[in-house]
Fold this protein.
Amino acid sequence: MESILYYTHMIPHHLDTLLKNGQEVDKLFAPRKAVLARFPLLFTLLVTFGLTATIYGFEKLVDRVAYLNDHPFVLFLMGLAILTFTGSLYKRLGRVT
């Protein structure tokens, strides 16, 4: 029972530490937020181009694999399996913290 009271007593200290660290992080990212706010169209176009180029490049790499090129359903199933795996991994990592 003493350990529970000890940890309950430490909560305000840890909350203060988290708030101070959060404020420091906000100060570090303030210039980045200001640039994004000043040039939203530029960054939107750059992100769109980067995402499109990545997807197109991946498509060209997959086209080089003859088996996947001949059997697109296998590629589809691989994609679903990877999405399922990463989703379950995300949930498990979220429970740990």
